[in-house]
Amino acid sequence: MKVVLGVDGGNSKTAALIMRHDGRCLGHITTEGSNHENIGFPAASRILKQAAEDALSSAGITPPIDVAFWGLAGVDIASDEAALSAIVERLDIARRNIVKNDVFAAMGAGLSREWGVGIISGAGFSACGVAPDGRTLQFPSLGAATGDWGGGTDIGLETLRLAHRSFDGRGEKSQLESRVPAALDLPSLADLPQRMRDNRFDWAAVRDRLPPLLFQLATEGDSVARRLVIRIATEVAVTAIALLKQLELLNIRTDIVLGGSIFHATGPLLLEAITRTIHREAPQARIVRPEFPPVVGAAFQALRREGIEITDDVRVRVRATLPIEFAGTKSTPKEAG
Asked: Mean pLDDT over all residues of the chain?
């Protein structure tokens, strides 16, 4: 019996899942975030070790197991992958360990084959692709300096900027002017500068609260909000097309898996605009929002490394045995185009 471990290690939480070769989920755990960029490598090692051991214990399995796939936030360049690979090897959890950015886990949850393109837009923005011959491409996710734009932090800040420009007359009038301060617990945008100066402004609220407000206003017809949503969609499409071109997938039917909270936005505008823009250059592309959360995608990626195909039967068993805490995060399967 083949048994694998899938790990999705993010900023706010780390999820670990033990899965049998046939898709049956045997054990799981969710614990604190393990991104080494936030907490350092020693703390990340401790959290990853505890998560893996607790998941194995809940399944009644003693390590080492066959293979583990570690989808970890902060694996952006080769030195990150090397450092974290060395760490997980020392944990003695699995005989074979694969360490990748967490975008590969999210992508793995939606792929119908072993290859395709994955894009995450949550707090940040990440993108990767795998070609049929195994070639892998990942864009570094280190912010504006590496060309990134389109995560929740970027969207929240741009929403705030447009709201303020409506407020002070430098930009087009928008409902953002009145709705943004309410979302941020501000009496008015006029109070923002002093809050910033006093270090009393909640920047996390900009990231977490303003993107959903933006999409809501776009569905209500606010022209400024709608243009920003189109800009987000264009960025996603441009990123996907760049990956398709570099991996020579432009004219091949390829899954483009969209993971992260931004792709669960209110209203159809975002996904429709993404699909329309991608299909202009890649008409055979299949745009997918995965049914399962990234930790399941990580386990699927581990199974694939063992030569196990993710069949419909495997997916059925996952649905039947996926823990409630993970099942509650999955979206309804969606395909555009």
From this structure: 94
